[in-house]
Amino acid sequence: MTSYVAATGATTTCCIVGGGPAGLMLGYLLALKGVRVTVLEKHDDFLRDFRGDTIHPSTLEIIWQLGFLDEFLKLPHQRAEKLYGEIAGKESTIADFTRLPTQCKFIAFMPQWDFLNFISAKARQLPNFTLLQNACVDDLIEREGKITGVKVTTLEGKLEINATLVVGCDGRRSVVREKAALEVMNFGAPRDVLWLRVAKLDSDPQWSTGHRGPRKGFIMIDRGDYWQCGYSIPKGSFDDLQRQGLPILIASVAEISPFDSARLDKDISDWSQVKLLQIRIDRLKQWAKPGLLCIGDSAHAMSPIGGVGVNLAIQDAVATANIVAPKLLAGTLTLSDLKRVQRRRTFPTWATQSLQIMISKAGQKPRRKAPSGMELWLRQRAFIPFLFGRLIGIGFFKEKFKI
Length: 403
Description:
The protein has helices spanning 21-32, 57-66, 69-72, 112-124, 175-179, 238-244, 246-256, 261-267, 309-330, 335-364, 373-379, 383-393, and strands spanning 9-17, 37-41, 54-55, 78-80, 82-87, 90-96, 107-109, 129-133, 136-143, 146-154, 157-168, 184-186, 191-199, 211-215, 218-222, 226-234, 275-277, 282-284, 288-289, 292-294, 300-301. It is of the alpha+beta class.
């Protein structure tokens, strides 16, 4: 798979830590521009369940621009032209994507491993791209105040990889940002999510959107032969819930879901079948230091609200490739160039997180009085779902890859 494994050391132009959406997309885009890239992924595959599965219209636009949208959409997926939720006890349209100025006017719900396998397969066709799996980053290499590489543990042993630029794309528990001692601003989150799998029956409704929710903190995603279900709980309450026993959880889920307790008992018989997602909203004060940059969840962890985390990560990757690729090819990359990435991506990150925080706080406050006249008027405006469709589907800032 790569010549680096047998070597005692290796050198590349850009070393990307993390083979998620941001890491693989950035690796592909840089390699497409002619930059020598090594992507490090700590697992041996991408088959991890309950990851973000929403491919937004803006991401589909990038794939269209790269020339393989039709091929990509042949992968199994569900399309959502609208997102629905429960407001004041009634099912309402939360977001409508049908009028977006994009090639695809829908969200594609697709298992993230399919998306990652597709992008990695495209990247492997490029001669200057290397994907090294089963590679866990232990530490950064620093020389004279500049990050110059990473120390990695592989199945074959220890390895040092030297690089002009190290990019942290290793998620909200980023080893890169921890080892770089980058300061994190935490904004908290009042809820966590429990992910569950419920087998699909022929008698279940066939939702063309593949997605329903939120309804009293419960969402469902159609995975073909099973439903991926998310159940919202107060932050930090999972241990207490476990002490109360699995039947209490089953009863709580049955109360707000279309599944009765008997059916849930068949599919959720052990706590190992319940996966906790600890929601956090944070971002780095500084995304970069000499020789190092963080993007995606490594730079800004998002709430699941709107499913926008993957979308923002891809947009970060596009902006990064546009800014740093010419500098890497010319051998003139500086800290100032890396800070340009943060400046370009700061507003959409801040605006999205601010909106998520506002929605989270609003959802925790019990209503003490009837809706105001303004609120009732806004609920009836036909443009509101299209506005939220743009914010969710495209975001606050649209990036375009400079081929």
